[in-house]
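User: Design a sequence. Structure:
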């Protein structure tokens, strides 16, 4: 219990620091975001509304930095992340809530598939060294070493242009209205095949390599030898003794990957023009949309912290040494 409280305190302090830095970044950056917004709309916004816009975006210099900070926390606790410059006057929370499900569905599913696939192959490859599974490692490593934008462009050139099996861009057919019905879900699934397969191909090698190396290491440990000497079945020794201990580093890596799922795979969404949160971040950077950047960074930071906390709890369950220290 003491260990859990220590970790909760640590992540609470880290979250406070991240939120505070997130508040300070746009105020320390050069340039005036309100003037940039007025210039962007080219006369559609009255220049006399500068003070009103600054107050609206929480950048009113007549209020002290501490007052702005307390206002920022007050808005944050109410779920108010401000207004987006790019989609003005749409709230940032609405922009994020529309794009986040796309990223979670695509990157979340593919990350889980690549983790399960890579870890499973790594377990068998490490336990049965010299089998045909070892031949997969150079192939998957070669594919993962290809820069993602090249892999994505090759996939588009082959499977969307030369053999038009899948669409080259977008999250769904433009003629459909987003809804939870069969035509729209089928279209969304069809559009996600090509980016999804490229994500799995580029990520699976890391899981295989890490798990295989750990399995090779733990296979020579005394407790594995003792389990084999006791006459336990090979399957039980492999999973209950070797894989259970070898998987701990992969669990940490998977938890970190869960955190970065929310950030999306920026290159994936850029290459395939996929309507996820990474693509929104790319647009926000190009348009100097500070509120949207703040909102996306905040969501990513909190997600990474939550994923790390989850990893710590899983470690407590899997590793007796951690429970003993706690």
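Assistant: Done.
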């Amino acid at each position: 219990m003491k260990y859990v409280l220590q970790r909760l305190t640590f992540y609470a302090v880290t979250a406070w620091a991240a939120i505070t830095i997130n508040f300070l970044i746009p105020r320390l950056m050069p340039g005036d975001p309100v003037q940039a917004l007025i210039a962007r709309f080219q006369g559609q916004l009255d220049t006399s509304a500068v003070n009103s816009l600054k107050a609206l975006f929480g950048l009113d210099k007549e209020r002290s930095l501490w007052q702005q900070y307390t206002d920022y926390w007050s808005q944050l606790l109410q779920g108010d992340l401000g207004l987006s410059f790019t989609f003005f006057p749409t709230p940032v929370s609405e922009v994020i809530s529309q794009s986040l499900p796309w990223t979670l569905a695509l990157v979340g599913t593919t990350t889980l598939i690549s983790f399960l696939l890579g870890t499973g192959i790594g377990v068998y490859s490490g336990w049965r060294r010299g089998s045909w599974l070892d031949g997969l490692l150079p192939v998957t490593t070669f594919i993962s070493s290809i820069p993602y934008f090249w892999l994505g462009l090759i996939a588009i050139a082959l499977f969307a242009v030369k053999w038009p099996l899948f669409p080259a861009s977008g999250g769904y057919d433009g003629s459909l209205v987003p809804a939870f019905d069969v035509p729209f879900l089928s279209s969304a699934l069809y559009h996600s095949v090509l980016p999804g397969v490229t994500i799995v191909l580029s990520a699976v090698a890391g899981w295989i390599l890490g798990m295989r190396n750990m399995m090779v290491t733990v296979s020579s440990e005394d407790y594995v030898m003792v389990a084999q000497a006791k006459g336990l079945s090979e399957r039980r020794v492999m999973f209950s003794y070797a894989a259970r201990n070898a998987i701990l580093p992969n669990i940490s890596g998977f938890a970190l990957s869960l955190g970065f799922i929310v950030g999306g795979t920026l290159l994936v969404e850029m290459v395939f023009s996929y309507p996820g949160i990474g693509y929104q971040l790319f647009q926000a950077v190009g348009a100097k949309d500070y509120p949207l950047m703040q909102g996306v960074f905040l969501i990513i930071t909190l997600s990474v912290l939550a994923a790390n906390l989850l990893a710590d709890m899983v470690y407590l369950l899997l590793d007796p040494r951690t429970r003993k220290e706690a």
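The chain has a mean pLDDT of 80. Residues 84 and 95 are 8 Å apart (CA to CA).
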